[in-house]
């Protein structure tokens, strides 16, 4: 699934209902299969994701372009590094 936005096309990855560390592990695996510069929206209900996802992006060199609180949790826009 993709979503158009200012960043272009971004795939949406629904990880709602999963608890730490699964959102980061699954996001890392999905991003590894994507080309450099691709964007991925990660949707999660895990309250620790607001700490884990930014840390994961920093550690792996990806760009966290957006972090939004939504009704059911949080969503993050990640741009894959080279």
UniProtKB/TrEMBL annotation:
Pfam families tied to this protein: TusA
Superkingdom assignment: Bacteria
SUPFAM superfamilies named in the record: SirA-like
CDD domains, A to Z: SirA_YedF_YeeD (cd00291)
Record domain UPF0033: where: 12-80
Alphabetical list of InterPro entries matching this protein: TusA-like (IPR001455), TusA-like_sf (IPR036868)
Gene3D superfamilies: TusA-like domain
UniProt similarity note: Belongs to the sulfur carrier protein TusA family.
Protein name: Response regulator SirA
Protein species of origin: Shinella zoogloeoides (Crabtreella saccharophila)
Lineage summary: Bacteria, Pseudomonadati, Pseudomonadota, Alphaproteobacteria, Hyphomicrobiales
């Amino acid at each position: 699934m993709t979503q158009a936005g200012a960043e272009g096309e971004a795939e949406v990855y629904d990880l709602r209902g999963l608890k730490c560390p699964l959102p980061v592990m699954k996001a890392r695996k999905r991003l590894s299969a994507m080309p450099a510069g691709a964007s991925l929206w990660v949707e999660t209900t895990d309250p620790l994701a607001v700490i884990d996802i930014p840390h994961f992006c920093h550690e792996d060199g990806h760009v966290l372009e957006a972090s939004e609180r939504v009704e059911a949790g949080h969503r993050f826009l990640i741009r894959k590094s080279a």
